[in-house]
Amino acid sequence: xxxxxxxxSFRVIHRDGEARAGEMITPHGVVRTPAFAPVGTRGAVKGxxxxxxxxxxxEIVLANTYHLxxxxxxxxxxxxxxxxxxxxxDRPILTDSGGYQVFSLGDRRTxxxxxxxxxxxxxxxxxxxxxxxxxxxxxxxxxxVAMAFDECTxxxxxxxxxxxxxxxxxxxxRRSRARFLALRDDPGRLRGEVTNPxxxxxxxxxxxxxxxxxxxxxxxxTALGFEGYAIGGLSVGEPVDVMYRVxxxxxxxxxxxxxxxxMGTGMPDDLVESVAAGIDLFDCVLPTRNARNGQLLxxxxxxxxxxxxxxxxxxxxxxxxxxxxxRRYSRAYLRYLHVAGEMTGRTLxxxxxxxxxxxxxxxxxxxxxxxxFESFRQRFHETFSRRPRS
Amino acid sequence: xxxxxxxxSFRVIHRDGEARAGEMITPHGVVRTPAFAPVGTRGAVKGxxxxxxxxxxxEIVLANTYHLxxxxxxxxxxxxxxxxxxxxxDRPILTDSGGYQVFSLGDRRTxxxxxxxxxxxxxxxxxxxxxxxxxxxxxxxxxxVAMAFDECTxxxxxxxxxxxxxxxxxxxxRRSRARFLALRDDPGRLRGEVTNPxxxxxxxxxxxxxxxxxxxxxxxxTALGFEGYAIGGLSVGEPVDVMYRVxxxxxxxxxxxxxxxxMGTGMPDDLVESVAAGIDLFDCVLPTRNARNGQLLxxxxxxxxxxxxxxxxxxxxxxxxxxxxxRRYSRAYLRYLHVAGEMTGRTLxxxxxxxxxxxxxxxxxxxxxxxxFESFRQRFHETFSRRPRS
Lengths: 390, 390
What we know:
The structure is a homodimer.
Chain A: H1 2-5, E1 9-16, E2 19-26, E3 29-33, E4 35-37, H2 50-55, E5 61-63, H3 65-70, H4 74-79, H5 83-87, E6 93-95, H6 99-103, E7 109-111, E8 116-119, E9 126-129, H7 131-141, E10 145-147, H8 159-185, E11 200-205, H9 211-222, E12 228-231, H10 240-251, E13 259-262, H11 268-276, E14 281-283, H12 286-292, E15 295-298, E16 301-304, H13 324-328, H14 331-340, H15 343-370, H16 373-383
Parallel strand pairs in A: 4-14, 5-6, 10-11, 11-12, 12-13, 13-14
Antiparallel strand pairs in A: 1-2, 2-3, 7-8, 8-9, 15-16
Helix pairs in contact in A: 7-8, 8-9, 10-11, 11-15, 11-16, 12-15, 14-15, 15-16
């Protein structure tokens, strides 16, 4: 089976309800699940050095195929020996397929059955991505987990639109998988540019908010034998209860012995609910992007550090938090740095937010291992509120 | 003598020619000299966290009175318990007097005998600094070393202009010192806002490039009994050999048992030549600012990381360097981060440049202690060239 051919394996160590604690073993080390992958869009988590990211306990990061292909180019990365060597990060890396970024380009892209044509956001140059080229690019990057090239269905979508989009994603999944397996059989097809022979590939389930479409997508995608499965097309504007319903409904249709990855989500309470539904892996720009915008995520909920009331506030952002930022700095200083536009403020906020996310994942894993996940979940929701804290 | 009243003491441990290795003891710890103070203009070294700065081995940082008074305001800092507590840095801090920034404002400021009126670069509001208010502001900030309020003579200046400016600096030095001593005698004058009772105050020698004026300034300034002495008004456009001549000529006129501080200088070879002339302490924005602009300073000289030839260069910026950046990252990656505008690139470049500066200081100190400073100096100049490296 593909699982043994790829360098990736996954096992569930403990279950608590639908929640799972597991281990994803990759060519660059183990990721203990449930896990959160900080986003390093262009090969760096914005504002942090890799040692900061390692210090936070991150075991995997995400990098974006679209951005890296446009600059510096996957061929340059391959010449450097792959993304791990190029960026100097020796732990696991997950790359998206580029599909999501391309679809976000709006009228700068056109989709046909073969793939997507678009203009670079950097220089307006004409570019093209297909299931095959997105697979090749990721082979050059040499991530540990590559993603099949999918069409991210926009929201809202009618049933017919969602079905057409889901079917196209399926056809593209077959082509992505065929290309991936062909490269695995004969890496020479890329003339020495396959930089991680143990790379795994995950398929993506689409189908918008329609239960029947999600089920059909899950059935057909899992039949292709990917090493893991992602749920795509969520956190795109749908109400949160709808998202929870789709996650729960889809997760249970995915193979029990493969990683389940919820793409691009979300707020901390989304992660808790999704782990409860059996999700193992997450990525999201929210903790890092919001940090740079001055929004700290704490156990009590979001805290906007720019508020004038914090000008003289000597308390740490989250008094219960053990992160470097909260152990060392006051709200007053962080507010000042934010208002002054100091880079260091963005770094300190990012350290806090990622610590909160990664720590929440660790707490969830521990609760699952101890069989106390339900009480963790209840306590979490009792404390955390999405409404900004005063 | 004032030396014992202030929390600052200084002793020379070893000499090698004019070069000195010493210890400056402050209320927040020891600074081993010769020492370089990274610039944290607004209470943060741009792009670094304090733990990064400590990890680099910095024993003192500089913060700018002008910037901190405009925002967040020294009174707010005093309410937080002083600058150390406000910014979460527990090692020594040196503050400038604000004079240099104010004079840099050009036509946004007017000078009279009492002080300087200017418009804030932030919001255009009318502001005023005098020797007394600059002293009060620094008392509120509670730095370990405060500076007398001086007029930084511009370059070039005629002998008459330079003398007038130097005489004004002297009159302002007397007022700065009087105010400082009055606050030391009775901190209650600032109604609880004096946050570091052990603060020391340094006088500043001016006189442009004129030997006689420098001598007169040194004589009259040292007569005021400051805890240490700075050489100001250099690195303002004069030729480098002129600067070296003025530094050497002035340093020998300063008391042997007090810290000698060369303000706002300079390139690495400037530091070596100034240590050779008997300087103990430096600050300069160059390593941090140039890092953000993509100029790395190495043993061989400056290296502009943005050059296209580095796109595929797997070597570290400086193969002989032991800093985190050079141990972990390639020129190719740093070039890419710079071109992509990633914050992390600015951070990594800053870590390298400050390491190079601080390491150069440590090597100089060691050479002085071993009596091998002259051979260090020769080897340094054989390797280091100001011309950009290819």
